[in-house]
Amino acid sequence: MSQASEVSASNIMDQVMQFAEPSRQFVKDSIWLVKRCTKPGRKEFQKIAMAIAIGFAVMGFIGFFVKLIHIPINNIVGG
To answer: What transmembrane ranges does the database entry give (predicted)?
Structure first.
């Protein structure tokens, strides 16, 4: 009976290790990634912020002009 329980315990441990190994590897890789990443410097951050602001402004102007053109067209078509 003790030999059967040893085999069963070993089998259960193998299953637990098989389940835990990918999780452990994921945590290890995640920690490595966070350590490798760096914050942007002031100059780089300002450059990114400026690019985003310009993008927002361009999209806003496009939306404004599309709306500006469609208002008279809707009034003409709608009566």
So the answer is: 48-73
d(CA 49, CA 39): 14
* Confidence band, pLDDT 50/70/90 cuts, at residue 31: very high
- Domain chopping of the chain, boundaries: 1-37, 40-78
Cα–Cα distance measured from residue 72 to residue 78, given in angstroms and rounded to the nearest whole number: 10
pTM of the model: 0.50
Q: What are phi and psi of 28, to 5 degrees?
A: -60, -45
Torsion angle (degrees, nearest 10) of CA 19, 25, 26, 27: 110
Residue with tokens 């329980």: 5
